[in-house]
Amino acid sequence: MLESLPIYQNKKSIQREAYNFVMRHIDREEVNNVADIFAGTASLSIPFFRHASQVRLNDKYTFLFYYLAFYTKYLSNDLFIEMEYELEKIKDIELYKGFIYNQYTSGLKKSFFGENDAIKIDSIHKYLNENKDLINKDIFNYIYGNFIYSVYKASNIKNGYFYMKSKDEKPEDNVFKLSGSRPNEYFKNKKIEITNYDYKDFIKIYSGDLLIVDPPIKRRLLNMYYPLERLAKNPYEDIEALNYEDEFSYLGPKYINALQLLISRSSYKYIFLYLDKSVYKSFPKMFFKIFIHHELELDNGYFVLLEKF
Length: 309
What we know:
The chain is about 35% helix and about 15% strand.
């Protein structure tokens, strides 16, 4: 279905299973307005794009907002040419040593980038934020998401995440490359909105037909992605250490209560949950009986589809 994989994707078999499970219980005509509230890289949402007239992908983390704006955006020929022009200008920017160079080019645990690549990354980070208001919004978001993904690809990482310990003691250098790429045809003529809300704010604002809920597990471990989230912010602003401590940091009563609150206050007719087995076993089963519900057990989790009366 897709020509390239994003930062992290569930296996395509899970995508197919999720789509088939939902569509066994819902008519296609009922799935016009779809949202993914913890979108991440939209790994569960993508199959529903084929016939939904409105798709909203939401994630509270800014680097994922930009990544999704790049990954799912289909640029017209005119915008694509303008985007290539903006990329050409980036080739001649003034070089700058900043956060990535100072924090992530040395040390056994943090040697994520070679020195030359770190300078390029810091320079582009600075340039994009200085010129944000001078670039078409769609093109800026597309380039910034491309930048985030290119940084990820060039990093010396382990198993797809920014672990506190890098993969090799010495990272490769001169592997970072920011270049234009043709948008995937799959997203052509799709009405996709990318949002950047905490889940509590999202459910106050939006309503629709189907809400996809793939809740994070042990969100505190997202400090592995700290360099990407830091690069998604303005380099001139004082940014405190990212706080990942929230309802989804640990599996416990707060986690389960937050999920129940999300489901109860949602204004979507159908809610599709992809739950880790540990989450499913901690969930009060009587809660599901408030709804018309269907379940499917998987090797590592459960699909649950809830329909509000």
